[in-house]
Amino acid sequence: MELISQKTKEIMEECKKRALSAGLSFKGESLEYIVTNQGFLELSPKVMIPTLYDFWADDVEIVRNKWLYNVYPHNPYETVINTRPPMSFYNDNNPDWLNVMIFYHVLGHIDFFQNNVFFRNTWNDDFCGQALADKRLINRIREEMGDKKRWVDYVIEFARGIDNLVGYYGELGEDDKSVSGNVLGTLSERIRFYFGEFLKNHYESKTVPIKFYYDEISRLNLSQEQFGQKVGEEVFFDDPFLKSKFPEFKNAFEKKDKKNKLKPKDILQYLVENSDFINKDENKWMKDILGIVRRTSLYFQPQIRTKNSHEGWASLWHERLFVADPRIKSHEVGFALTNSKVVVDPPGGIGLNPYIGFKRLYEFIEGMAMKGKLSAEYQLLEDAEARKNFDKKLGEDAGKNTLLEIRKNLNDSMLVNFLSDDDFQDFVDKHNLFVAGRRLNPDKLVIEIYIKSRSGREYRKMLNDSLYHPPSILINEDKSREGELYLDHVFEGRTLVTEYIPAVLMGLSYLAGNTISLETTEFDIEREERENLLFDPEYTPYYKRFRVRYTCKDKVIEKTMLSADEIGG
């Protein structure tokens, strides 16, 4: 792996200027590396982060990738990672003109990284530097463990079994609270509690009038004007009048504050804070391991949740920018061939290629914005002919501004569900999209692919079903007994992969040092019903739904039926 040549760097700097003038936004320098096919095979298991910590499963994947490569030589044209500065990798087989096209694609990704709000917790991070520090820490722990260093990999494996359950939105919520505090003025938790929950409860119980609330705000402002923010707050709460009127306030706040601190955002954080086993002196190294796994997962969460819109955005811009670049001259055929392999519909219409699917969605929304069809005036129209001919001629600037706002504020799920049902049906009709199905042909004994539906609702459902959606698993403190950990899976239409449950629970039971229980929902369908469904895709089968509990105690897994009902037909 080596940095690109100075000549190529100058070419890419010219690409940056063209991208910025076209409306993209990114700051600072960027690093570009040339990587061999062998280098890509070794970096892929580390999610293209060269400094990511070592783990035995990565070595297995490298061997697997080499075997696959020998049978089917392939590698990506490029990869870009979200760090400071942004880093991108280019295959050493790429010709110069292709690297120009690819760099436009990379700039689309960098623009998305640095402007989409779901990445805001990563905007100031040098993740490669943090990953290197984490790697060194894990290596030091391995050295200190001596002949027991294999347990470091065991703990990593146990933690990675649930690293998709990290409290990503909880972390974003903390960031929002910080931002709102800066906008509205810095308020301590004690002030928030007093003027929020505490006085609200007293007002609702009619022990204080609304005038008292406003008088207290004035008293706080006066105290902070006279003595400053911190001292003024102390003067406010030390007032004899407040202490005599609300003698219970101090205990109520301390109880509330303690309760808030005991609410971790996910299972990994809960184990770090509450596991007696991990908090033993000889096991405290595990806290560092769990923290690293959790921090790494949190860093990649926004990328997973915007994967499709990310690729659609980059594809949109690499096409627009390279077609307008004079350096495409004499390479038009090569570009058309390469681009057609990227932005192409999946064979048979089965599945989703985000490079073309989400690129089309961006373009469709842009076209609506240019015609003013995102307005309430258009959305309230019921006449089909009037909807078809509606055009406010707002121009390209309106379309581009809308695209930039969408890029800024939406993730995959929000983008898929952005349009109304009628507008999404127009999108499906425009591109002749459909939901494909499979059925058995009893005469030829083959599986046929057929057009199952051209409905916009069905197509959107297919897209939603394909999006990343980790399970919601909550810690049920009411059902947890004597240090045990009781997990409650909130069923949202998707079951857990049951074959992995025993191994994951064993790992969690080890980390918790106690019994682990998991309550979840499962389904069962008779063989005859499956066969009916195979021959007739429209058949609605009978199936049974169960609420079950898995319990891991002393490495033994038990499964208990809690409830059952029959559905379908």
Report on the architecture of this protein.
The model is unreliable at 178-184 (pLDDT under 50). Helix 6 packs across helix 24 (501-512), helix 15 (307-323) crosses helix 17 (354-371) and helix 22 (421-430) packs across helix 23 (456-466). A hairpin with a 2-residue loop joins strand 10 and strand 11. By secondary structure, the chain is α+β, with helices and mostly antiparallel strands. 55% of the residues lie in helices and 13% in strands. This is SpoVR protein-like N-terminal domain-containing protein. Residues 7-465 form the SpoVR protein-like N-terminal domain.
Secondary structure layout plus pairing:
Layout: E1 2-3, H1 6-22, E2 31-35, H2 37-43, H3 56-71, E3 78-81, E4 87-91, H4 96-115, H5 127-145, H6 150-160, H7 168-184, H8 189-204, H9 210-227, H10 229-237, H11 240-245, H12 249-261, H13 267-274, H14 285-305, H15 307-323, H16 332-342, H17 354-371, H18 376-379, H19 384-389, H20 396-409, H21 412-416, H22 421-430, E5 435-441, E6 446-453, H23 456-466, E7 472-475, E8 485-490, H24 501-512, E9 516-524, H25 527-535, E10 542-553, E11 556-568
Parallel strand pairs: 2-4, 8-9
Antiparallel strand pairs: 1-2, 3-4, 5-6, 7-8, 9-10, 10-11
- Category by helix and strand content: alpha+beta
| Backbone shape | globular
Largest sheet: 5 strands, mixed
Measured distance between first and last alpha carbons: 59 Å
Give the C-alpha Rg: 28 Å
What is the count of distinct domains? 5
- Tally of individual helices: 25
Strand order within the widest sheet? 7-8-9-10-11
